[in-house]
Amino acid sequence: MTAKQPALARTTPGPSAADQVYEALHRAIISGQFKDGEPLRQEELARQLHTSRIPVREALNRLEQHGLVQIKRYHGYTVAGHSRDEVEELCRFRALLEGELILTAVPRLGAAALAEAKKRCQAFARESDPVRWGALNRDFHCALYAAAGLPHHLQAAVAALDRTERYLVDQLQMTDGRAQARAEHQAILEACVAGDAKAAARLTRQHILGACERFSRHLTAHEAPPAAAGKPRRRSG
Predict the structure, then answer these.
(1) Angle, CA of 93, 114 and 188, to the nearest 5°
(2) Alpha-carbon Rg of the chain, whole angstroms?
(3) Percentage of the chain with pLDDT > 70?
(4) 237 — pLDDT class (breaks 50, 70, 90)
(5) Residues 118, 189 contacting (CB under 8 angstroms)
(6) Which of 27, 47, 145, 229 has its CA 20 to 30 A from that of 135?
(7) Using N-to-C axis directions, what is the helix angle for 17-30 and 42-49, rounded to 10°?
(8) Domains and their CATH numbers in the chain
(9) What's the average model confidence in pLDDT over 155-160?
């Protein structure tokens, strides 16, 4: 007997069915409604969303591109999961890459780009829906990085941001880190406005690595303690 999929909001008239399915599944994954490794069965998802398998498949393929879903042989689509080591590696990669991006971008940032970054910084600060925090965080950073004129760097940075989005949201919720993230975004923006590329790069790296460290500390603090070595097991009966 297969496990029952969590309930999802049905599709409605408006945006394309594939877009609506994507948004519903994205929200379910980011919010933790679907767990790491959980199978995503197309027939069941289509039934819950009152649509056909075609938009479901399109949405799952899009989620796979963003690192939230993976295809396993004999298992089909499942929610992608990353170990703590993988998340930490992605964060270190982001710190290196995004530090270089903003270092290159700052001298090229014009008034329009800075105004757009400020708008996105404020949007992140105002948003109360945790599911939106990851996308708004990405939008803020990319508004600054785009001026670097390094499209391959930017593409790699966006891919890494997508893959760590779920863990970023967890960190912001579990460690009450949103106020700190808002302050760090503001400090990065102010360094960019001042034209201080080195400070912007340093603050960006600290922002990424600090969030990763807080997430790791939280996981360590809430891990179940290992069983005492040599302690005899209780026998039943």
Answers:
(1) 45
(2) 20
(3) 86
(4) very low
(5) yes
(6) 47
(7) 110
(8) 17-79 (1.10.10.10), 84-216 (1.20.120.530)
(9) 93
Structure tokens at 30: 């980011």
**CB 188, CB 129: distance < 8 Å:** no
CA quadruple 106, 214, 66, 113: dihedral, nearest 10? -20
Q: How many residues does the chain have?
A: 237
**Two structure tokens written together for 215:** 């997430």
Q: Quick one: which of 134, 186, 121, 130 has its CA closest to 160?
A: 134
Output 1 or 130, whichever has higher pLDDT: 130
Cα(42)–Cα(56) distance, integer angstroms: 6
Residues 6+ apart with CB under 8 A from 120: 136, 139, 140, 143
User: CA–CA separation, 91 vs 158, rounded Å?
Assistant: 12
CA 1 to chain centre: 32
119 contact partners, CB below 8 Å, separation of at least 6: none
How far is residue 185's CA from residue 192's CA, in Å, rounded to a whole number? 11
* CA-based nearest residue to 59, from 42, 81, 37, 74: 42
Joined tokens for residue 123: 């949007």
Q: Is the pLDDT of residue 182 over 70?
A: yes
Confidence of residue 235 (pLDDT cuts 50, 70, 90): very low
Closest CA to 160 of 145, 179, 176: 145
pLDDT of residue 81: 77
